[in-house]
Each structure stands twice: as C-alpha cells, then as structure tokens.
Amino acid sequence: MSFKVPRGTQDILPGEVEKWQKVEGVMRHLTNVYRYPEIRTPMFESTELFQRGVGDSTDIVQKEMYTFEDRGGRSMTLRPEGTASISRAYVEHKMFGNPDQPVKVSYLGPMFRYERSQKGRYRQFVQFGVEAIGSKDPAIDAEVIELAMRVYQESGLKHLKLVINSLGDQEVRQAHRQALIDHFAPHIGEFCSDCQKRLEQNPLRILDCKVDAENPLTASAPKLTDYLNEESATYFEQVKMYLDALGIDYVVDPNLVRGLDYYNHTTFEIMSTAEGFGAITTLCGGGRYNGLVEEIGGPESPGIGFAMSIERLLLALEAEEVTLDTEDALDLYIVTMDDAAKLKAVEFASSFRARGISADIDYAGRKMKAQMKAANRLEAKYVMVLGSSELEEQAVNIKNMETGDQEKVPFHDVVNYLLTHKQ
Ligand code: ATP
Ligand code: MG
C-alpha cells in the first residue's frame, strides 16, 4: 500500500521551508512595527459561525467548507478564513471594552477549503492577515492597505497592482441590488446555475462569478460606484486621499466585489502583474466589514482587514525570479576518525550549539572521506577533523572551507575561535 498527501495539500520540505520562514519573518516584523500583535484562534469553530460570519451565499459556505459532526453531535467546520473567528474572539473577550480602539491583531496559519485544486489554489493553505476592529476612520483603511503592500515589497516583489473599490453602505447596496436584479433578471437563463441562485440571494456575487466573467451583461451591469450616497462617496474619497498621501498607487475597479458577504465600503485586492504568474493573479484580498461583529452578537464595531496566502506570495516571487536570502548555512562539521574522537565530537557539538554555533557530526558510521563529502554537501563553513593525535595534543585544525585556510586551535579556545570567525 502506498500513501500520498491528500489532494490539494502539500509537504513543505527542508530546503523549501526556509522560504516560508523568511517571508513569515517579514510579516512578523511588519506586524510589530505597525502594532498588530498576533492572535491565535482554534483551527475549527461551530459551523454556524462561518455561515453567519462569512455569509450563506458565498462560495466558501455553499461548497468549500470542511464540515463534520463531532462525537457530541455538534456541527463543526475547519476554519476557511480568519475574520469570523477573530470577530468571535473580539466579542467573546469583550475587546470592544478596550479603551484603545481599534483593536489591531494579526494571524498566520492554515485555512481549509474544499476547492478544485490547481496552481495557487489548495485545500489547505496558509493565510497571513490582519484585522482592525472598532474604528471607521478611513486612515485605518489606508494603514491596512499599506501594510499588505509592504509585505510584498519587503519580500522583494516589484510587479504589483492595487485595485480598490467601494461597496458603499447598507442603503447603497440595497438600491444597487435592485438595479442588478432588474438588469440580470430578463437574461438569467444565460447564466450558470450558481448565478441563477445568486440573483435572489445576492446578485452582487454574479459580478464575481468565474464561470460567467466573459458575459457582456457582466461588464454592462449597473456600477456600485454610481449608486454611492454622499456618506459613502465621502468615505471613499478620504481613503483615496490617505492612499495618495502615503504615495500608494491604485486603480479603481467598480466591478471589484470580492467573495465574502460581509464586506462594505472599502474593498481591495493586490495582484501580481508579473509575466508567467499564471491564471490566478490575486495575491491578497481585503476590505471593510462594518456590521459583521453585530451579526455575530456583539455591539456595533466596524472593522477592516485583509488576508493573503503564503503559497501565492511564493509563486509570485518565483514568477519574478526573486531569490530569498535564507541564511541557513552550517557553521561547522566535525569529522571523526574513531570511537574516542566521536565521544569528543559529541561533547564539542553540544558545547558549540549551546553558544549558538550550528554544528553537525556523522551518525552513519561513515569513513572519514565520506564524512568530508557530507560536510561539502551540507556547505559547512568550517570543518574540523578529530582523531587520536588531536586528542593527544588537545588541539585541532579548523579549516575554513571557503578559503581553504587552516589554523591549529587548542581545544579550550575552539568555541571562542568559532564565535569570532564564523560570521
Ligand atoms: P479567489 O477568488 O482566488 O478564490 P477568494 O476571494 O476566495 O480568492 P479570500 O477568501 O479573500 O479569497 O482569501 C484571501 C487570499 O487568500 C487570496 O487572495 C489568496 O491569496 C488566498 N487564498 C484563498 N483561497 C486560496 C486557496 N485555495 N489556496 C491558496 N491561497 C488561497
Ligand atoms: Mg475562493
């Protein structure tokens, strides 16, 4: 019998995982300087939280959730996204009572969606995201967008496009909804079965349909931006004003509606414009969700956030041929000649590691020549060979593998020698 990873999931092996750690480092650094400390919520929640928090008419809730009944008969779902859980935590821990609003948090972890797997689309993927809950200041929208852009820029991407739109408020969406129904209803037979359901449930989502994207009625549909009331229009202008002040370029796309039901006002996506990135060009999606916290039982607490997957960020880095500087070099390999030397090597390795010097030794009983080859394969910066004469002399030659230089160092000086030379 042979086993394989489940479809849509992947093993991330040493050699590849360093790239993940590198970009995660960029994210951790930025969430620190922007003050979005990490929050960790469970990997599964009650199904109803996502039905309410993500929205019943979304693709996520309708066909992508990993839902199961636990042994107590409760319906639970592996989290498909982060915002619903964080909003739940915000309410559950009464963070709305915190004197400093908005509450700003970030998260980094796996999400689960039963999707048709393809390049850039997985069933388990890792999302990094932030949320700022408890403020409807347009300046926070701009801050959140800037933070997302910085993640990509500081990871080394150059070919980026920021697309923004406003979905307006409840009143705007109601008026626009009716206009959409009037527009699509006479021709709905030409659309896919999902869109036929969307017409009544949430006609806005027809604009986001991947199947009917090319239908000319989609392009000619009434634009939300034409329906913005004064308050929504002013809010959108202010967001743009802050983006301009931050020197962030953007394109306004009136058809950008995004997949989640709870979005309103600001919505945005960051795309890769790199050639060869493939069909899926969206790296990051985000937006404002005033009303979500109330939907799940909290007081009025307007929020904004974004989510991006590490998988797509790494694909974009590949498309732009950016090499990440992953600095995982091995400082020292200890080659041993016999059992007595091995005993000393084990002791040495322990004391080096205690001082932060990375060290490795042979555990496969290989001959010295094979050990030297291993040291080369591992790209050790230094190699020392321990044998009976070294033990007798209590000194060892340390070889710099890059320059080929060797120096004899007494045992008691080896740690200091490596600490001063290893950089
Ligand atoms: P798409 O239109 O690509 O399906 P979405 O609207 O479902 O995206 P969101 O739910 O907003 O995406 O998720 C935000 C980000 O998470 C996406 O921009 C993308 O970077 C990432 N993402 C979403 N689904 C997947 C997936 N199945 N595999 C990898 N990354 C994903
Ligand atoms: Mg999706």
TrEMBL record:
Organism: Kurthia gibsonii
Highest rank taxon of the organism: Bacteria
UniProt name for this protein: Histidine--tRNA ligase
Chief place of localization: cytoplasm
A Pfam family it matches: tRNA-synt_His
Similarity annotation: Belongs to the class-II aminoacyl-tRNA synthetase family.
Entry annotated with the keyword Protein biosynthesis: yes
Claim: Nucleotide-binding is one of the keywords in the record: yes
The protein's Enzyme Commission number: 6.1.1.21
Residues in Aminoacyl-transfer RNA synthetases class-II family profile domain copies: 1-320
Keywords from the named record: Aminoacyl-tRNA synthetase, ATP-binding, Cytoplasm, Ligase, Nucleotide-binding, Protein biosynthesis
Gene symbol of the encoding locus: hisS
Phylogenetic placement of the source organism: Bacteria, Bacillati, Bacillota, Bacilli, Bacillales
Subcellular location: Cytoplasm
GO molecular function, one term: histidine-tRNA ligase activity
Reactions mediated catalytically: tRNA(His) + L-histidine + ATP = L-histidyl-tRNA(His) + AMP + diphosphate + H(+)
Stored PANTHER family: HISTIDINE--TRNA LIGASE, MITOCHONDRIAL-RELATED, HISTIDYL-TRNA SYNTHETASE
Subunit architecture: Homodimer.
